[in-house]
Amino acid sequence: GESVGLHLPTLSVQEGDNSIINCAYSNSASDYFIWYKQESGKGPQFIIDIRSNMDKRQGQRVTVLLNKTVKHLSLQIAATQPGDSAVYFCAENIRGNTPLVFGKGTRLSVIA
Amino acid sequence: EAQVTQNPRYLITVTGKKLTVTCSQNMNHEYMSWYRQDPGLGLRQIYYSMNVEVTDKGDVPEGYKVSRKEKRNFPLILESPSPNQTSLYFCASRDTNTDTQYFGPGTRLTVL
């Protein structure tokens, strides 16, 4: 069936470096994509989203890139900090009331 | 403060003893969901509700029930818990205007 997946289950980066977390999706009908951050012992927290009519969206230190041609989504974190250490999930859905489909997550570890 | 609350946060129980995990949101959202999170499997949707008295099965509904008698509350009911329902459970509430989903802090359930 259609699913959301992640290329890398773990990622370690030096503090101050940029991080890139990747995600592949397979449902070509999906038109809304979200990145969540989940810290240990907490629920997923919304980071940034993007709709399919865009290919890039920027937030504070984070950028999401969407490549619909290859069904690829990425999250870029600039100047990674220890507080960025967490598991990051991508999710997709078709706008409306359809359920979100989550990837399995990538663990980001920031090395001080 | 906009939030989703769950109770209890931690629960250890025995097989067959009925339990209810409560969920409440103060954002007047129509759409609410329950997920379970297991290592290697990510977040999987159990049930969702698009409005009061409207509930639907998600990906893994077996062994669970829900009710939506009022907009703010969406309890998850395990009539006869089994050890394979040991998991971390998240309630979520979604703003259908923006599609932003807010998660509760999680309930860690252990069924012996």
Describe the structure.
In chain A, the strands form two sheets. In chain A, strands 2, 4, 5, 9, 10 and 11 form a six-stranded mixed β-sheet that branches. A five-stranded antiparallel β-sheet of chain A has the order 1-3-8-7-6, with no helix packed on it. Chain A is globular. Chain A has strands at about 5, 10-15, 20-25, 30-40, 45-50, 55-60, 60-65, 70-75, 85-95, 100, 105-110. Chain A has about 110 residues and is mainly beta. Chain B has about 110 residues and is mainly beta. In chain B, about 0% of the residues lie in helices and about 55% in strands. Chain B is built from no helices and eleven strands. Chain B has strands spanning about 5, 10-15, 20-25, 30-40, 40-50, 55, 65, 75-80, 85-95, 100-105, 105-110. In chain B, strands 2, 4, 5, 6, 9, 10 and 11 form a seven-stranded mixed β-sheet that branches. In chain B, strands 1-3-8-7 form a four-stranded antiparallel β-sheet, with no helix packed on it. Chain B is globular and about 40 Å long. The model of chain B has no long low-confidence stretch (mean pLDDT about 95).
Distance between the termini of chain B: 36 Å
Would you report the number of β strands of chain A? 11
Level of helix content of chain A? Answer: under 10%
Low-confidence stretches of chain B: none
The H-and-E topology of chain B, N to C, reads as: EEEEEEEEEEE
Helices of chain A, by number, come to: 0
The major beta sheet of chain A can be summarized as:
6 strands, mixed
Overall pLDDT level of chain B: 94
Strand content of chain B: over 45%
The biggest sheet of chain B amounts to: 7 strands, mixed
State the distance separating the first and last CA atoms of chain A.
Answer: 40 Å
Query: What general form of chain B does the structure show?
Result: globular
Query: Over the alpha carbons, how many angstroms does the gyration radius of chain A reach?
Result: 13 Å
H/E series of chain A, N to C? EEEEEEEEEEE
Largest interface: A-B, 21 and 24 residues
The geometry of chain A reads as globular
Which structural class do you get from the secondary structure elements of chain A? mainly beta
How would you classify the helix and strand content of chain B by structural class?
mainly beta
Task: Give the DSSP E fraction of chain A (strand runs of 2 or more residues).
Answer: over 45%
- The helicity of chain B comes to under 10%
Average residue-wise pLDDT of chain A: 88
